[in-house]
Amino acid sequence: MKEPKEFDYFKAWLLFFVIATVGGGLLGLILGSFVAAFLGAGGMPLPQMTCILQIVGFVIAVPISYVTFRAVVGKYLFPKIEDDTSPKT
User: Fold this and answer.
1) Measured in Å, how far apart are the chain's first and last C-alpha atoms?
2) What tens digit of pLDDT does each residue of 36-88 get?
3) How far, in Å, CA of 33 to CA of 71, rounded?
4) How many whole angstroms separate alpha carbon 76 and alpha carbon 73?
5) What is the b/e burial string over 65-87, where b = at least 16 CB atoms within 10 angstroms of the residue's CB?
6) What is the rounded distance in angstroms from the CA atom of residue 53 to the CA atom of residue 26?
7) Which of 52, 76, 80, 87 is in Cβ range 3.0-4.6 Å of 12 for a Cys bridge?
8) Is 70 left (phi over 0), alpha (psi -120 to 50) or beta?
9) DSSP code per residue over 25-52
10) Backbone dihedral region of 43: left (phi > 0), alpha (psi from -120 to 50 degrees) or beta?
């Protein structure tokens, strides 16, 4: 089994970082706006709302990070490892 090159790791990490950051930011913006509007309409004070929105942001970021990691590793790192271990005919 041949180890992927450092550049392969860097490309996969960079793609993961960009997709997770942009995707998490957009989804957090959309869902956070709805949650903030709901909590604000209920009369919740700003300090409590801030704490709840931070928790919501974290909960949104975890699955985005996981799915992005799986997709990037599966697409960019596993094929390089499998190419080296597949039998040559």
Assistant:
1) 17
2) 898 888 888 989 999 998 998 898 889 999 999 999 888 877 776 766 566 65
3) 28
4) 5
5) beebeeebeeebbeeeeeeeeee
6) 14
7) 76
8) alpha
9) HHHHHHHHHHHHHHHHHTT--HHHHHHH
10) left
Name residue, tokens 């995707």: 23
pTM of the full predicted structure? 0.71
Q: Which of 14, 4, 26, 28 is nearest to 68 (CA)?
A: 14
* Nearest Cα residue to 39 out of 25, 49, 50, 51: 49
DSSP 1: -
